[in-house]
Design brief:
Helix content: 25-40%
GO biological process, one term: DNA-templated DNA replication
Protein name: Replication factor C subunit 5
Strand order of the largest sheet: 3-4-5-6
Number of helices: 4
Structural class: alpha+beta
Organism: Smittium mucronatum
InterPro entries: DNA_Rep/Repair_Clamp_Loader, P-loop_NTPase
Distance between the termini: 44 Å
Number of domains: 2
Mean pLDDT: 68
Transmembrane segments: 26-45
Order of helices and strands: HHEEHEEEHE
Length: 160
């Protein structure tokens, strides 16, 4: 049984209702034609020339929903087939840090704050590993993999 929040979460860019200007900007990046007779044409980009993107905002503001809708627009429904993995990373002090990851064939989602003070090492090693990986299908049009990094910042208030 799925949670109501997950079941009714928008999964395409056209279903997103808030921040229409941001949605329109994302559509322009992935679609070669954006407005034809006032209709948005959702056609995937012919090239993989999409810039690095950073989504930020408070918790619950729709960052993950927007990212997943963008991935679905670029890669199709395969971006929603998510599996959970556990990865181990070695630190310079010879310590092993385990972190849980959600991933599909097209993206990796991590929460580096789960690694505590070793969050930087986890992100660096993951980016280095993805950059060194060769594409299995060299004729594929989309030659990149998205890394979705979730940082949780806790408000620490001084007690008086």
């Amino acid at each position: 049984m799925a949670l109501w929040v997950d079941k009714d979460r928008p999964n395409t860019l056209e279903k997103l209702t808030f921040h229409q200007d941001l949605t329109t900007h994302l559509i322009k990046m992935v679609s070669p034609f954006t407005f034809v007779f006032l209709i948005i044409v959702y056609k995937l980009a012919e090239t993989s020339d999409i810039p690095h993107l950073m989504f930020y905002g408070p918790e619950g503001s729709g960052k993950k929903t927007r990212i997943m809708a963008l991935l679905r627009q670029i890669f199709g429904a395969g971006a929603e087939k998510i599996r959970m993995d556990t990865r181990s990373f070695s630190t310079p002090s010879s310590r092993t840090v385990e972190i849980n990851m959600l991933s599909s064939n097209y993206h990796i989602e991590i929460n580096p704050s789960d690694a505590g003070i070793y969050d930087r090492i986890v992100v660096q090693e993951l980016v280095k590993e993805i950059a060194q990986t060769q594409q299995v299908n060299s004729s594929a049009q989309k030659k990149f993999k998205s890394i979705h990094i979730l940082y949780t910042f806790l408000n620490q208030r001084k007690k008086k």
